[in-house]
Give the backbone structure.
Amino acid sequence: MRGSAARLPLRVLALGYLAVILLVPVAAVICRAFGDGLAPVWQAITAPDALHALWLSLLIAAIAVPLNTVFGIACAVVLVRQRFPGRRLLDAVIDLPFAISPVVVGLALILVYGQAGWLGSWLAERGIQVIFSLPGMVLATVFVSLPYVVREVAPVLREVGTDQEEAAWTLGASPLRAFLQVTLPAIRWGVAYGVVLTTARALGEFGAVTIVSGRLAGQTETLTLYVENRFEAFDLTGAYAASLTLAVLALLVLLAMTRLPSHRGTPPGFPGPHRREEGR
């Protein structure tokens, strides 16, 4: 009883903090979006520029997420299963997008791929434009969402180990086939969590994309940029309606995450931490 009484204020404080920081602002956006009824919201989200911004955001996520998924799995395998000079440095560099400002990422991409950048003139001579076009926006999104799959898959790989994969090798399977048919199914939930987080980050990216996009309405304007432009143009209905669309996409991503099993990467037949303790 004393323990429950002591934990109650902590729970109230935690829930109150979450309500003030998360729930109240989101609820305010929803209320403000529907303040003039459903028709203005529908008209705003079906406007040509809004639909193009939504399509562009989904397209960038559709390109960036598979790239980061493949790279994330490969990088996690290298970090967990190989020992080489510079491994700790690589492990730290993976987290760089967590620490560095997205605005800095955008400026760095311009220094490399802009017309006056290190590779900009070489690419321009070959008719390739990176900055102020889709490739630059994809690069920025890939950069900021790079660590999620790696950080979700690496702990699962450590837990799974290599015993069953090595057993497959002794039965004649090639290393690639053993990984695809034994290890990859075992880490599938870690990959799935990483994909969900990467998707959420890619859809909500703003800082790096706003630097490299040029923010051309109907051309290089993602949904997050569309929200800011509508707000600056005093089109509050359009801004809140687009914000509502982003919120719905985020909720769908979170719903997908809650549908994933809680044991993440621990596959059937593999002893997870708790199962190992029970077996002793």
The radius of gyration is 23 Å. The mean pLDDT is 86. The first helix runs from residue 2 to 33. The CA atoms of residues 4 and 11 lie 10 Å apart.
